[in-house]
UniProtKB/TrEMBL annotation:
Naturally occurring in which organism (per UniProt): Trichoplax adhaerens
Statement: the UniProt record of this protein carries the keyword Cytoplasm: yes
Protein family (similarity comment): Belongs to the profilin family.
GO CC terms of this entry: cell cortex; cytoskeleton
Name of the protein in its database record: Profilin
Subcellular localization(s) per the UniProt record: Cytoplasm, Cytoskeleton
PANTHER family: PROFILIN
Keyword Ligase: no
A molecular function (GO) term: actin monomer binding
Subunit details: Occurs in many kinds of cells as a complex with monomeric actin in a 1:1 ratio.
Record keywords, A-Z: Actin-binding, Cytoplasm, Cytoskeleton
Length: 128
């Protein structure tokens, strides 16, 4: 399956600045151009349930940008973070992957969350 179409659709919405889809094994499925997480960043995201307290105090990084954890929406399996310089990140998990999207200080957080959540739901419906 080609995952690049998902990233193109996410970013073309105008509600997400950069996006990525990673497998739960840490492998890259698709990325926005110039956007990539380090191995350590992926590991922190994948292990978030084990590290909630440290994520709340220390935050986490995505593509080298530090985010403060705002909330963990367990019912949606979603991490929500905000950056010091404005903007934020939404990360939504499926059985086999996670979908991540960032928004800038000039973008609204709600629409970014919607696009990322809907993309994750689409992957879930496809069996991922």
């Amino acid at each position: 399956m080609s995952w690049d179409g998902f990233i193109t659709k996410i970013v073309a919405s105008g509600k997400v600045a950069q996006a990525a889809i990673y497998g739960r094994d840490g492998c890259i499925w698709a990325l926005s151009p110039g956007f990539q997480l380090s191995g350590d960043e992926v590991k922190v995201i994948l292990d978030y349930k084990k590290n909630i307290s440290s994520l709340k105090t220390d935050g986490f990084t995505v593509n080298g940008v530090k985010y403060t954890l705002l909330t963990v929406a367990q019912d949606q399996c979603m991490l929500i973070g905000t950056a010091q310089q404005g903007g934020g990140v939404y990360i939504s998990f499926t059985k086999q992957a996670f979908v991540l999207g960032t928004y800038t200080h000039s973008m609204q957080p709600g629409p970014c969350e919607t696009v990322i959540s809907e993309t994750a739901e689409e992957l879930i419906k496809l069996g991922y």
